Backbone:
């Protein structure tokens, strides 16, 4: 595949409450930041991730274009998924060879509604949603299926977050990702733009897979799709210094660490992970950004990032990043 | 644009007001199975699935790809959900094609759908309370002032919209999948229907449809059956609130067309293309897009329509399938345009086939006429 690298990453200082900023106001500073970091003002491709149901109105992504200042008109697309999947689309687009840069961003204000009940609406509307399981309930089902030291995971995440200026200032460890408003952006580069830069985190492998929707069709103690994505991304081809995992509930870390084949030497979620800040629709992208940041600052030689979507870790994306192409 | 990509299968449901006999999963599966059958393949032959639809509020299912994974045979594979407003069907095809053009996969299933009977799309589109007040009702309320401005600029006579409404519905009578098949449709019938949003009458608007459309995309080495080759694909977006933006002829549309024409070697679209499937949800958008897409000069589009150039027997047929005016499962409407263009160059469009079609344009737009997706497909390899 054509070498592609993360050249810039920015995130908001996340909040656990609505600060009165609109979505375009939320993303404007992170877009500006990655433009400054990358030295690029225009991009060959732009892709974003957001969810209408967080705002309770259609087309939440439309006004984001105003924050970009998308003029003259840009090559742009949007996924109604976590922006990590937008990054995947951008990585694919960069494989074509005709454009060398991509801007990816995601944003979400889950403070605006009842996230736990909103997440019920992504279940099968005929057979599952009417059961009324909210997000905590179906996560709980999965938690029961796995033996996990959730209190330890929560404490480590909370301690790690103390040095992360973007994370929420939570008074104590939590096993459930907090309600968060926030946004993030990443710039990808390829081709000649790689040669002009020295501090890059190359994407050595990236893949995603989805599992069957119905929890009863899956072994909830394992994640087949995360394991398949990890294999396709090449996680096992070398040691993993750092893994940033999209862990919205502490027990998910146990499932994911096994699926990705991580060793005890791998530092998981040094940023504190989603248990310290969970701006829904940007959380997965932030995992890629945090992993890239560890590679770029030299604290990791090889890092893994993970993003998820759907109930009980149904859909998983895995990326491997390092300084070498 | 990377590696070669071809459409090797097309599947559509019949478009109708209410598909009470199927769930959403059943609806998309019906289209997917027909596309696979057309390609002579099964779900096992598919590497990745891309799903597109318009706002989730239309059916009340958030991020429905999670729920649709099983019905579309996606388990164990990559699955993507695209959403770019009304242009989404076109964008979904382009995202699917990108996976092949980028050399990531050999066969991709692309599905777009809407089950409008699950809710009321007009109110789901009447944004944005409580964040901003809305002075319009539905998409027609938003676009009618742009149409009136087109009429003022071009001096087009008032009956042009009626001509488009009749022409597209006559074509729909030749398309077994079309939703609105109105025997005896004529100008008098259109002009007798109520005025909804001046100058748009009831029969000058698209219907609300349930339906799904699917295509199977293939790399060159994995082609089966009769391919329609992708000669070019492009997307463009512009901000809705930019001061000075021309909402009648948006630059994003012009730029997108220029990009796709350059890739496909088209210098004069009216001459070089044989048929076009263009997103015309309100009749007047035919003359407006004729100009925006460079099929004629500024303020000349209505003259092509009036002269019959865009009719099935004209020199550049537009919407031989009946178009969005005859079938509108919103999220699928763009993909239907792209799929119908492929059917034409594969020679498989049935009674609405344009004889000897070698190159065809598929077009979709969305948002406040700010998101554009287009592709050109051809019978010959690019």
Residues:
């Amino acid at each position: 595949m054509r070498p592609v690298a993360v050249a810039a990453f920015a995130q908001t200082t996340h909040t656990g409450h609505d600060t009165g900023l609109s979505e375009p106001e939320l993303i404007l500073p992170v877009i500006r930041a990655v433009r400054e970091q990358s030295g690029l003002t225009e991009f060959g491709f732009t892709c974003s991730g957001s969810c209408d149901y967080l705002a309770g109105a259609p087309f939440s992504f439309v006004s984001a274009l105003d924050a970009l200042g998308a003029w003259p008109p840009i090559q742009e697309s949007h996924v109604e998924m976590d922006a990590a999947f937008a990054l995947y689309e951008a990585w694919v687009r960069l494989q074509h060879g005709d454009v060398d840069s991509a801007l990816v961003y995601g944003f979400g204000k889950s403070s605006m509604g009842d996230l736990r009940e909103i997440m019920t609406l992504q279940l099968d509307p005929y057979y599952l949603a009417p059961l009324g399981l909210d997000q905590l309930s179906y996560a709980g089902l999965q938690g029961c299926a796995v033996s996990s030291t959730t209190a330890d995971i929560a404490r480590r995440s909370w301690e790690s977050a103390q040095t992360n200026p973007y994370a929420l200032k939570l008074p104590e460890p939590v096993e459930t990702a907090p309600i968060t408003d926030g946004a993030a952006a990443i710039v990808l580069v390829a081709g000649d733009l790689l040669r002009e830069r020295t501090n890059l985190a190359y994407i050595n492998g990236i893949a995603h897979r989805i599992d069957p929707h119905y929890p009863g069709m899956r072994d909830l103690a394992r994640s087949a799709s995360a394991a398949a994505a990890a294999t396709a991304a090449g996680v096992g081809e070398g040691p993993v210094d750092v893994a940033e995992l999209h862990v919205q509930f502490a027990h998910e870390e146990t499932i994911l660490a096994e699926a990705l084949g991580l060793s005890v030497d791998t530092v998981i979620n040094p940023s504190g992970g989603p248990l310290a800040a969970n701006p829904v629709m940007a959380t997965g992208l932030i995992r890629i950004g945090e992993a890239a940041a560890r590679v770029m600052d030299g604290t990791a030689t090889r890092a893994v990032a993970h993003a998820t979507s759907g109930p009980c870790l149904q859909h998983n994306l895995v990326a491997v990043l390092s300084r070498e192409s | 644009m990377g590696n070669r990509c071809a459409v090797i299968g097309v599947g559509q449901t019949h478009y109708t007001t209410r598909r009470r006999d199927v769930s959403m999963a059943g609806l998309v599966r019906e289209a997917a199975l027909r596309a696979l059958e057309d390609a002579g393949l099964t779900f096992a032959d598919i590497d990745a699935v891309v799903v597109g639809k318009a706002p989730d509020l239309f059916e009340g299912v958030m991020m429905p790809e999670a729920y649709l994974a099983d019905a579309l045979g996606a388990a164990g594979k990559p699955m993507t959900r695209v959403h770019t407003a009304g242009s989404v069907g076109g964008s979904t095809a382009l995202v699917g094609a990108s996976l092949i053009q980028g050399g990531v996969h050999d066969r991709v299933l692309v599905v777009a759908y809407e089950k409008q009977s699950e809710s009321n799309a007009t109110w789901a589109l009447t944004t944005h309370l409580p964040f901003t007040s809305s002075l319009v009702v539905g998409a027609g309320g938003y676009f009618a002032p742009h149409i009136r401005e087109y009429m003022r600029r071009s001096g087009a006579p008032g009956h042009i919209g009626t001509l488009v409404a009749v022409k597209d519905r006559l074509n729909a009578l030749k398309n077994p999948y079309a939703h609105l098949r109105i025997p005896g449709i004529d100008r008098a019938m259109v002009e007798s229907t109520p005025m909804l949003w001046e100058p748009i009458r009831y029969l000058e608007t698209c219907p609300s449809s349930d339906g799904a459309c699917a295509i199977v995309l293939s790399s060159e080495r994995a082609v089966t059956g009769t391919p329609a080759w992708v000669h070019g694909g492009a997307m463009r977006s512009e901000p809705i609130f930019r001061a000075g933006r021309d909402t009648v002829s948006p630059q994003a549309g012009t730029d997108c067309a220029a990009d796709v024409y350059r890739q496909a070697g088209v210098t004069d679209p009216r001459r070089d293309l044989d048929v076009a499937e263009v997103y015309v949800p309100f009749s007047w958008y035919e003359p407006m897009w004729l100009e925006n897409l460079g099929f004629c000069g500024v303020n000349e589009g209505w003259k092509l329509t009036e002269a019959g150039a865009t009719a099935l027997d004209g020199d550049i047929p537009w919407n031989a399938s009946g178009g969005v005016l005859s079938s509108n499962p919103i999220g699928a409407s763009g993909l239907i345009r792209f799929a119908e263009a492929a059917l034409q160059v594969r020679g498989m469009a049935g009674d609405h086939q344009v004889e000897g079609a070698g190159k065809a344009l598929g077009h979709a737009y969305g948002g406040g006429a700010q998101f554009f997706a287009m592709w050109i497909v051809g019978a010959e390899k690019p």
